[in-house]
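Following up on my earlier thread - several people asked me to post the actual chain instead of describing it. Fair enough. Here it is, all 465 residues.
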Amino acid sequence: MLLDALHLARSQFAMTAIFHILWPILTVSLSAFLLVVEILWVRTSEVVWYRHARFWSKLLILNFAVGVVSGIPMEFQFGTNWGPFSEFTGQFFGNILGFEGAMAFMLEAGFVGIMILGWTRVPKGVHLFATAMVALGSSISVFWIMVANSWMQTPAGVALVDGKLAVTDYVKAIFNPDMAWGVSHMWFAALETGLMVIAGISAYYLLRRRNPEFFVRSFKLALLLLVFITPVQIWLGDSSGVDVFATQPAKGAAIEGHWETNAPGTGASWSLLAWPDKANQRNDWSLEIPGLLSVLGTHSLHGQVKGLADIPVADQPPALPLLYYAFRAMAGIGFLFMVLAFWTAYSLRKARGQLEALLAQRKLLLAWVLAIPLPYIAVECGWIVREVGRQPWVVYGLLRTENAASAIAPMAITGSMAMFAVFYVVLISSFFYFARRWLKKGPDLTLLPPAEPTRQSVAHTAAEH
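Reply from S.P.:
Thanks for posting it. Predicted structure:
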């Protein structure tokens, strides 16, 4: 019964996490994009940027609402399905989640009302400040959530006291070995996701020749940012991978289907494609490039890469083919984004930025539209690699997953899991219904910024009161 409960608890958390992560990543990126757009409006006073801010903010509030609601069931599971984990790690993990709620979510939630409803009620400087606070809050949320998760990957600053973890150094625990790469890689993934969505939606309107003068601006702005972000994200992914091989060799070997540790003075071969077989402790088949894995995993021609065969079977991650191909899907999509961004930038430069020349590039615009789901797939694959690759540990090297689950009836988990599934279907259906209405309606090109109150009008209003 406990084993069944463990598998069900893991499945339920996977389901809620996979659904929930879809929304915060767009909130982070959209709020940052809106901050850039609003700064352009405040600095240039061009009404088109005001209209952009009003248009894209509707997608933000729709996404924010679903993200908040979908995240509640996920956090409740720490107290229901994962009681031993919460008790074991509560002194640090619980505090970090508390920091996220108090520092990030409250800041974000406190200013989002002003950001959405304050266009005609507060001066534009105050509104810009509110937008900045929403963007800051969402980014702080990424920081604390990834601190908690990074600590589970590479725990530091703690000691085992009477069967529980006690924090001995908060600085070391927060700035654990994985933290810098985990936070930065996730934050850039969120930015990349939002910019791909914005560029894809803008390309959709351009493809249909609906308000092209309006959407060419958001398309070019998103493209400009992506030309910078996509190569940085690839570099962060590469650096994070090197860190994984150093701190979690089982995960590194699993995502590369690497079984035999290379001898000193030789390079480890990299498999371009393979089918890892945990039962037989080998790859059923493999297409390999000699010596390349040492370069990728250690940035050295003869760097030693530990193979799965030298790791006890009980400490090897499960679902090796899933890990192997999830990693390749994530990395492949990242390279595809960079190629698409630079190809588009080259095409625009060749066309000298002319709108008609861009509208004539129908295959290029279609590629952007079709790419909209890809960043979400990449993020989900990245989290599969990160979480499944850490198994069989929930806190790496300190607490096994099988010892972290609550001993509750499988039927209780099954019932709540079915309820959450129905709830999430309703949520995503509602989101697509309202998003479709938003897309169909398009931007309001008659909107004008509210007049800034003069000193005389403020004094007159004060005198009346």
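The mean pLDDT is 88. That should answer part of your original question.
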